[in-house]
Design brief:
The protein has one domain (about 1-160). The radius of gyration is 20 Å and the shape is elongated. With about 160 residues, it is mainly α. The two termini are about 15 Å apart. The chain has helices spanning about 1-35, 45-65, 75-80, 85-120, 130-160. The protein is built from 5 helices and no strands.
Length: about 160
């Protein structure tokens, strides 16, 4: 299972990097067309906004999976000396994250389904309205899945004499 997550993490990181590279190319092409050729690319702003939203939310999910998100390092370091207490705190955090991001994922996916069923488009273009919130939903689903994995690992750790990660 860990091998699967490592491959998924590597692939997602490569995808985020590729999307960033494409964004740089589009910005450069847009600047060249707008200021040199005097022909602006009308679709580039919408495209860049979409990939920035996807990059932000999926990147936040990946950051959470790595344990690189903000937290109280002092408390974290002190509790590592007490493995059972450290695991219990991580169980509480996993439950909070699972509840919040699980509910948010559910409601965002419901909103996306409503947009798809109604055929709603964005007010500034003919792009389907579900495209932007889908990036947010994917990021929240990644955090929810990471919270489930963390919850299972830490519950197992409490019953295995509190071994620290």
């Amino acid at each position: 299972m860990k091998q699967f997550f490592k491959k998924l993490d590597f692939g997602a990181g490569q995808l985020i990097g590729f999307i960033g590279f494409i964004g740089i190319l589009v910005i450069t092409a847009n600047a060249f067309c707008r200021f040199i050729l005097k022909v602006p690319m009308s679709w580039s702003d919408e495209f860049l906004r979409t990939i920035m939203i996807y990059g932000y939310f999926i990147g936040a999910g990946l950051t959470f999976c790595h344990g690189s998100s903000m937290r109280l390092e002092i408390l974290d370091n002190k509790l590592k000396k007490h493995p059972v207490g450290y695991r219990i705190l991580n169980i509480i955090l996993a439950v909070v994250n699972l509840t919040f991001f699980g509910l948010m994922s559910y409601y965002v996916f419901r909103m996306i389904l409503q947009y798809i069923q109604a055929g709603t488009t964005q007010s500034t273009s003919s792009t389907p309205a579900w495209i932007l919130p889908f990036g947010c939903a994917v990021g929240m689903a990644i955090i929810t899945a990471a919270a489930v994995v963390s919850l299972v690992e830490n519950i197992r750790g409490v019953f295995n004499k509190g071994q620290a990660r």
